[in-house]
Amino acid sequence: MIKALLGAAFALGIATSATAQTLNMMKGVDAPHYDAQRTTWGPTSDIVNMIQDTLVALDWDGKTPIPYLAKSWTVSPDGKLYTFKLRDDVTFCSGKKLTAEDVVFTFKRLKSPEIKGPFAWRAGTLKDVRAADPYTVAYELAEPFSELLLQLTMFTNAILNKDNVEALGKDYGVKGADGTGPWCLESWQPRTHITLKRHDAYRWGPSMYQNKGPVKFEKLVIKIVPKDSSRVAAMMAGQFDTTHQFPTQFIAQAKTAPMLTVNEAKPNFQLLYFGFKTTRPMVADKRVREAMSIAIDRAAIAKSILLGNAEAAFTIVDPGAQDHDPKTAGIVKQDPERAKKLLDEAGWKPGADGIREKDGVKLAPKVYYTANANSARVAEAIQGYLRKVGVDWKLQPWDSTIAPVKMAEQDYEIWSVTVPYLSAGDLMNIYFDSANIPTPNRMNWKDAETDQWLKQGRAALTAEERTRFYAQVQQKVMTEHLWMPVLNIAMYEVSNKKLKGMRPHMIYQNTFYKGLDASF
Fold first, then answer.
1. Is residue 173 part of a domain?
2. How far apart are CA 308 and CA 469, in angstroms?
3. Domain extent at residue 116
């Protein structure tokens, strides 16, 4: 297999010229633009995190916000006013000095009706943001947001150059994007490659890195290589230096390859789940939802399909994530016999072909998912398990370019995505708040208690209060079996052995993050 892949690499001719001053990277998917405020798209976020900075950074533990563009901050007793003290030595790639006016502009733009930022909620319910002086920002919330600092580490809250955005107008993020990051956007050839150059003035890297800047390469060339086998082949042949999108089915080979180093991101909160659209009659009964969830063997799926590069997920929130509720651990347990009993109780009886029926309708829900390797193989495995209890999943894969549009529709019972998240509150507020119906709350879950607990968790003034309210949400959505948690997916950075300092970060699947310690 390895010899075949190596041969394919040379035949494809996909290598880029490498020098000691150029870092060559691959990724599988490009983005439609690089305007962080107008998207939730991971392929935008990884580039944004290289070229732009946030007020605070996320430490390696995946939980702790640390100073970045803001060197310090204070919070009022009522949790509504954050006062950020900015560094006074930060410049954009263009040479312009960062001031509080750029921060004010950034968040006012994010919250503007024109942008319609899908992740604008991550900045809290903003009442006002103003410059108290050139390096002091008063950030005033209409209501407390217990996870504001954690959320400010996200790419959607990256600080923009006011002049650059206004000059480019609608072309911002397409024809250019200025930033204070360690890398500067030099050129972009859509669906082909992105070229970044070193930000020579950069000296303000977060404390999590040994090197505070500048980066140790003159350029970073990121090639778009959609085909899994081509990325494997190119890494095996030494044609690229690193990729965070190495197919999991080849990770075992990568670990034994003499030319490669495999680093796993730890911690890493990334859940592959199947969700139920509760307003569809076929899955409206929680007994049906529970039956599907407990009929499958998650450990076998993790071993046989992900080849050990995932762990079975029996809870929606990873046990290592902030505010995980340990009381949810025993709600989902594999039990095919109980699954059959639940389906019987719900009135779904086996037909002549073994598939259950009720009122002349087959228990054959439509299942939408993105047609990537992991989701497809997992869906097919679950389909096999469920047929044993009389459920016939009708699988409908969609190409990644149209999957979000199709999943925004209502004509299906079940869907699947793999979601990266920061904490229990992050995951729950995105998916289970009724304000987010019909997407991303595709369950159409409208529950007054859930909404109230989420609101109380967001507004909590202590970690203890926040944990208590988010625990109540977890217990409710788990006992209602709104989702089938299936796998906690591992994430890796695969690099050539000559490349050092490649500790992968977990934030939003952006393993490279800033790349400050990377060197040959």
1. no
2. 34
3. 37-167
Q: Band the pLDDT of 20: cuts 50, 70, 90.
A: low
82 and 143 belong to one structural domain: yes
Are 332 and 294 in contact by the 8 Å Cβ rule? The answer is yes
378-390 pLDDT per residue, tens: 999 999 999 999 9
Do the domain assignments include residue 351?
yes
Q: For 231-289, how does the pLDDT look when each residue is reduced to its tens digit (9 = 90+)? A: 999 999 999 999 999 988 899 999 999 999 999 999 999 999 999 999 999 999 999 99
Separation of alpha carbons 442 and 224, rounded Å? 31
Residue 97: how many other CB atoms lie within 10 Å? 12
Distance between CA atoms of residues 35 and 443, nearest Å = 29
Query: Within 10 Å of residue 508's Cβ, how many Cβ atoms?
Result: 23
Q: Is 145 left (phi over 0), alpha (psi -120 to 50) or beta?
A: beta
In a shared domain, residues 245 and 301? no
Strands 136-141 and 126-133: antiparallel
Q: How far apart are CA 316 and CA 370, in angstroms?
A: 20
CA-closest candidate to residue 275, choices 294, 293, 291: 293
For strand 242-243 and strand 22-27, is the pairing parallel, antiparallel, or unpaired? Answer: parallel
Residue count (the chain): 520
Number of separate domains in the chain: 3
Q: In this structure, what DSSP letter does residue 356 have?
A: E
Q: Helices then strands (H, E): number in the chain?
A: 15, 22
How many other C-beta atoms are found inside a 10 Å radius of the C-beta of residue 519?
16
- DSSP letter, residue 97: B
HEC readout, 159-202: CCCHHHHHHHHHHECCCECCCCCCEEEEEEECCCEEEEEECCCC
The three-state secondary structure class of 145 is: coil
43 in the same domain as 19: no
Quote the pLDDT of residue 249.
86
Residue partners of 324: CB distance under 8 A and separation at least 6: 315, 317, 318, 424, 474
Asked if residue 177 is part of any domain, the answer here is no
Indicate whether 202 and 348 sit together in one domain: no
Query: Which residue, among 204, 199, 201, 240, has the nearest Cα to 222 in the 3D structure?
Result: 240
**Which runs of consecutive H residues, i.e. helices, occur in 91-139?**
100-110
H or E stretch covering 273: strand 270-276
Residues 458 and 145 sit within 8 Å (Cβ to Cβ): yes
Chain position carrying tokens 């490009």: 30
Check which CATH number belongs to the domain holding 274 and give it: 3.10.105.10
Cα R_g (the chain), whole angstroms: 24
Residues contacting residue 210 through CB under 8 Å, at least 6 positions apart: 501, 516, 517
pLDDT of 8 above 60:
no
Give pLDDT tens digits for 341-352: 999 999 999 999
